[in-house]
Amino acid sequence: MFSIRTDLAVEARELYKDGHAGEIPGVSIDEKEEDGIKVVKVSILNDEGAKAMGKPIGDYITIEAPDLRYRDIELEDKVAQKLADVIKEISNVNVNIKTLVIGLGNWNVTPDALGPKVIENIVVTRHLKELAPLQFGDNICSVSAMAPGVLGITGIETAEIVKSIVDKIKPDLVITIDALASRRIERLATTIQISNTGISPGSGIGNKRSAINMESLGVPVVAVGVPTVVDAATIANDAIDHLESTLIKNTTSNSPLYNVLKNMDKEDKYALIKEVLSPDENLIVTPKEIDLLIKNISSILSRGINLALQPNLTVDEMNQLVH
Amino acid sequence: MFSIRTDLAVEARELYKDGHAGEIPGVSIDEKEEDGIKVVKVSILNDEGAKAMGKPIGDYITIEAPDLRYRDIELEDKVAQKLADVIKEISNVNVNIKTLVIGLGNWNVTPDALGPKVIENIVVTRHLKELAPLQFGDNICSVSAMAPGVLGITGIETAEIVKSIVDKIKPDLVITIDALASRRIERLATTIQISNTGISPGSGIGNKRSAINMESLGVPVVAVGVPTVVDAATIANDAIDHLESTLIKNTTSNSPLYNVLKNMDKEDKYALIKEVLSPDENLIVTPKEIDLLIKNISSILSRGINLALQPNLTVDEMNQLVH
Amino acid sequence: MFSIRTDLAVEARELYKDGHAGEIPGVSIDEKEEDGIKVVKVSILNDEGAKAMGKPIGDYITIEAPDLRYRDIELEDKVAQKLADVIKEISNVNVNIKTLVIGLGNWNVTPDALGPKVIENIVVTRHLKELAPLQFGDNICSVSAMAPGVLGITGIETAEIVKSIVDKIKPDLVITIDALASRRIERLATTIQISNTGISPGSGIGNKRSAINMESLGVPVVAVGVPTVVDAATIANDAIDHLESTLIKNTTSNSPLYNVLKNMDKEDKYALIKEVLSPDENLIVTPKEIDLLIKNISSILSRGINLALQPNLTVDEMNQLVH
Amino acid sequence: MFSIRTDLAVEARELYKDGHAGEIPGVSIDEKEEDGIKVVKVSILNDEGAKAMGKPIGDYITIEAPDLRYRDIELEDKVAQKLADVIKEISNVNVNIKTLVIGLGNWNVTPDALGPKVIENIVVTRHLKELAPLQFGDNICSVSAMAPGVLGITGIETAEIVKSIVDKIKPDLVITIDALASRRIERLATTIQISNTGISPGSGIGNKRSAINMESLGVPVVAVGVPTVVDAATIANDAIDHLESTLIKNTTSNSPLYNVLKNMDKEDKYALIKEVLSPDENLIVTPKEIDLLIKNISSILSRGINLALQPNLTVDEMNQLVH
Asked: Which of A108, A154, A167 shows the shortest C-beta gap to D144?
């Protein structure tokens, strides 16, 4: 059966609400908007909510700033600061813990390279604290960082690599960064989702992955993600939906047309979509300037994470520590 | 009005034939297939053909090799050789002429970077012939190469840059390489179009450009192009078309449904598509692995062009000359 | 004969003074230091000065900030501002003129890629002023930019390309950016030379180039350069010089040793150096972290040039205009 | 005390022989030359040899092909095949074992990026054998690959990362690839050293690293390395040595000069060298075209390793499997 592909909890909720009346049982919503930034917290409270949403129990906070599409340094600073605030709110971050930041995804595939790009600008300090504890002492948080690559590049499940590093260096917190799929073009590179559930199998725009979460690693995992693609099937589906509803609007409920359309089930639609798109393809839709958009949002992510993890450092000190 | 975006003459012909019976007036077609490579020559013979096709009078030869999607060195060699043959057939190439190869497009935008990538591996010899005529003498063809960038990067129309270089160094032939838009996913990075008409305004996946052709430059221009994207609007349109024809098939010609669908004109469809896609976006559809596909096809293009321009050099000699 | 390779006027002066008493005839010097930035203006006033210095008549202003080696945002801002001031002082820059910025050098060779890297972040506006004069009107300066590549990549002399573009778009000012050779390691990526003489044959770390100057182009040319390499021969020469002077210090002027050393002429030394270094090599000395140093200084150069050319734009507006 | 920096066993031997008569005790040498390729096997047989050489007991095989400096496809093929032969000779490679290939070094530092670059083209198959054992079955060797980065980038000792992956996926063989320092310019990117001793602390051009060897990992480690830099101090030292020996040759053994020179000890020379080079710098000497040379040699290394690990695959099959 065809289902709209999305990794965002806010969109899973929208999709649910399309077909149902009222809010989702077992899910609570909190929305705020300030300074052109909308923050939505979707909390999945119990198994009923998890089943309805197709996602594990936990908090999913979305920072949406559509104007990120246009360069605006002040807005970028605010979003980075908001990301830092959310990470601090949702995790056990403090200056005494050790954090491992993991940039998921494939650096050879433009829209999947977000995680590795963010890693490049994370302030890495674990070795400094260990090698020169007197000099770097209590002021900085121990941070290590890694882009483990993807299965096709290493031959090793990403989750296996992360698990083995975690077992070895024993961080208190893992933060993952990943490129996501959205159902809405306007969210690409302008929306950040932060959750305390980690990464579950099947998420992300790449191949299926094993879980990277509290259960598998034994430490809390904060997952930071940004949508960078929309599935081409989503666009085809949306086009068909629009035509359907237009036709339905223009006809009466007792006409044969109305009945044909109403009775066209999801299977038929999916078959149509598969005919439009070559069946074996992994087709994605992006704005033409996606390379630039990813560059900008990855810079915001690394700033936000650095702010969350290194509250005692100035921007200058961070710059000196970035490799 | 919505019109399917394509830069390929073979697709312009397909689109024409969708709505008309018989072959296009003023256009001749020649098709051959050998070794998994299909070669189609579309010749626009007169103004009538040019108008029907929306393209200038001239020859458009398409090399289609769908299996290029899978690495196959032997097929790649054959396609490179076929490209060389077509360039020789369609142009005045010989060892005594001076050729300027121009890689069009924006190197910062993955699917538009094809031209600049090809330029990187062109065997450039003009300076060698001029500086050491006795050593390199009559054996090599004088070739220069350049990737002029795009208007947004330089502030200068690409056509202006090319024109000023051509006026200065006076080549006998210009070969342009450009990324194109196709209407069919399966043609991405597997089809090469070679034409003797140069580049006309509005072609290519980038912004509108001024002409780069015999008329503007005063020398013959061979345009080599490979589709690297499909417009997202094309996918949406195809989805709607499929739904329409499915609905029509399932109804009788005297039903109201049939009439509604038959009477839905192109304007309505375009409005629908614009609703599905954000109106101000330049949305493209690509396979997820487009970075890799472009890398492979650009290597085939540079080999084919080198073979056409340097018939007296061995592969080893070419390698030594590639910077 | 061996001669120390340097593209910096301040170093040419140092070398002259090593062998001569007093200041160089026909050359005036002005030195200032402020905030950890030393600014030295070497003015070559007449043919006598030009001959002694091996450089054309004109002003050569050097901004030296050794602490750029360590990331320091405030210092970087000051150096960018100082660069803007010097460009404004030394040229005819104002909001009504048209400027063409040229990034010289080979983007495939790390220490030679400075110019092309700077170009990436120049605010390019020529097309905006031409296409939307009402919107962008009098507030912005018309700027175009280009990295023409090097002879080995294009087969065309860089000077030919620049000349043909200048003839076509007729700017009022050309600014070139180039990687230079220094004789002192500590100047690499920490010193900027700005001159109003343009580029003369043989300058730069690449191959010999034809002139890019007022005489060849017909418009003023400001050359901005940063040393990124020291010749390996310079290091070998310095080692030998140090040994010589140590030996001389440790002996008396009537000893045979003293005479051997005093009589060892430059030819002998050069032969020695050629034996140490393979004769056919183009060997360079750089700090291991040169990739990072070049990244930092190129960002300072683009900011400084943007500040000089676009005095009416805020940083945000510049960011929005950078492609 | 100053000591010439080299990671090559053949050079450690040369240095020893400079100061001593006869062969090194506890070290055996075997030299062959064929087709422009010289293969030297230095075997350190016991503790005495290990102490004299400053390297662990084991075999160090050097493949030297000076003509690699010039592109020559046939020679490149021969060197790749020779590398495959040496890996097979020196290790337990066969189709039934599992191999992990590790690309050491910093991808942001041109001459240190060799290891990561080689990894990009290793045929990775571990996941295919595990996910589709029937399809890929006994024909292919299980290979995984990884570029773990360096301490400054990850905050984690490279040896720690490798150890944790090895403990997790339990390969039968580890192959490391690393950029080395040589004392001779002409060996840069033209010499390959293969040893069965793994990597010991202090090797490589980067920072000191913990051991990656049989003892630390529990599996055999084959280390493949290519020199990409010469220390600037080596060049300075060589210059001084040449001057010394020239002066000594030109004087008589009872002159004061002779005595001064003979009595100048290594400490004095080191002090001189430190004066020539800034004391806190990590200065390296490379040919200007080092980026290109590293690109070529890394392609040879990946081909050689693929040939050794996948004897049953054709080149086409390998290409299809390279990501």
From this structure: A154
